[in-house]
Amino acid sequence: MTVKIGIPRGLWFYDYFPLWKTFYEELGAEVVLSNPTNKNLLDQGVKNTVDEACLPVKIFNGHVIDLKDRVDYIFVPKMMSVYEKEYICPKFCGLPEMVRHSVANLPPLIDTEINFNRSRKHIWKTVYEFGSYVTKNPFKIYRAYQQALLAYQDYKDKISQGMLPIDGFITPEGKQLKPKVKPNKKIALLGHTYHLYDSTGSMNIIKKLQDYGVEILIPEMINLKVINEKASTLEKKMFWSYGRKVLGTALYLKENKEIDGAIYVSAFGCGIDSVVEDLFERWTRKEGDIPFLLITVDEHTGEAGVNTRLEAFIDMIDWRNRDEGNLPAHG
Amino acid sequence: MKVTFPHMGNQFIATKVLLDELDVDTVLPPECSKDTLEIGTKYSPESICLPLKINIGNYIESIRQGADTILISGSCGPCRFGYYSILQKEILQELGHDLDFILLDPPQGDYKKFFSRVCKLANTKNPIKIISALAKGTRILYQVDALDEIAYYKRPRQRKIGEVDFYLDKFHKEVRGVKGFQAVSELIAETRQSLLNIEEDPTKEVIKVGIVGEIYTIIEPFVNLNVERKLGEMGVQLDKSLKVSRWLTEHLYLHPLGLSMEKEIVKEAKPYMKTMIGGHARETIGYSVKYAKEGYDGIIQIYPFTCMPEIVAQSILPTIEKDFDIPYLCFIVDELTGDAGYTTRLEAFVDLLRRRREMKQNEKLLSGY
Q1: Which of A1, A86, B72, B296 makes the best surface tag, with the fewest CB within 10 Å?
Q2: So what's the ipTM on this one?
Q3: Quick check: B281 and A94 CB within 8 A?
Q4: How would you list the strands of the sheet with B2-4, edge to edge?
């Protein structure tokens, strides 16, 4: 009988799912994904999480509940750190514990620790541990891992070309290139991947912007080398991988000015955003003179309010482009 | 150079002694007050945690008194405290204050930079002078923490309510005017003696509560709305999971050597949390288990709104509550926390603990052993 492994469609899912999915499928397990986020799933999540947790964590718990009765294992790795001397949000580090103590009657969790804070040397041991839930054969695991890496690389390439994995489904080629309206402005869209690509959590912001005729720039589309270079000029090393990416992007955008505006989508109560968003805003809006919009969402956010704000922001950019000659006042 | 630093409970006494011993000119920030909080809230990002807001308030109040250099410590993640320094610098710069920041981070391999910062602060390269000042500061830190310990014991037992805090308030006022290790040490000894001499009422029934949570909020009395005094006067003897003295020893002296005093706590927390996740989540869990095993009557967790590690701990604590049959109360503080609601919840919790204890005693009486 094949092992059924459930992967919740939340948090790190949008960064890594082809990697994990291919890995387990190559090993011969059956991978079950939870349903895309919907109202019912969100409500379940909200009910079963501490009030203070952020929306993405609540959604994640909803996905776990969605999966728990139909799989043998639920995949909830303990993500501590994916780069050297960097961390992920403390809630990611404690995610398996949080899930275990919030949701009752769970199947066993695959909660292997991923920690490359000291070094990446033991990466193989980590991979083996993940594989050992299905097979004990190291060769098979190695081969599956290589396949998974290929799939992951392919996924990253697609995203950098602007094919965004909304709800985990990569937009088919060409669709992104031909939106309803011909894009006439470019806006940088910042935010955690689990926010932007979740159409319920982000209230479909990507699609809305595209329909308004906006070309979207996300940090993944900028050359990683450029971001890393910019981020290394920071006075103190940013120890969150996500934060480093965003701050590097901020510094890049400040100098390049290739965008007409920036929109930052943040979850209410997100600790990382409270620091990163503030610095991003300081550097792009105040120093870089780029229009900036912050949208904070939680489980109560009304879609109409967000629509109004988006429309106003886009109108403002249009006026700015039309009326504001970038000529100095004194000729 | 006029150095200032943020408040955190009694830490200012030790930091002042340290800087006095190094002959550094210091500006002691005024005690945290509503004004401090208001200033801080005005200039800080909206969703940042409370400690940063209070820090900013402290700085600006000190700047008004002429401070031009700020001394802070830091960390390297994953809690956002590690990026406080950068954010604070940006905020103050925007307000037009061009200040020097002296950052005492864990060195992370770069010892040269670390020592150059220490030398910059101390204005001397004489290691003996620096080490002796550091030792004196640490000793003061232990002495004031011991003073608090006595206060925790005496408060619920004092015959005249308020006597303990009479001496403590007096101490806090006087210590601001006293300079140097010798004088401060003497003042502490004097206060200690007066505290020990306070008359006890042996008939008082004392219950025990353990306080766990985020270090800043459980230590700074302004932020936790003076929880130790409130509880003490309700007849509760308390113990806090974290103390500045312990934190300093752990992080400054033991951690670089790979040692730890917290092995026991880590072990207690293990069944609930396998690894550290930043902040003090693991300590919160470990100490809760420890308090439960030591027969405390209840546990109170206090943390600032949006604190990431404590949210993880909060979702685990109800399991501990069930496993050990110990009542647990969670307090989340931010700039909008009201005193009255807070006091009501504390009173209700203490009532519950008393009732539970009574019931347990009666049970024993009735079952005949």
Answers
A1: A1
A2: 0.84
A3: yes
A4: B25-26, B2-4, B69-73, B100-104
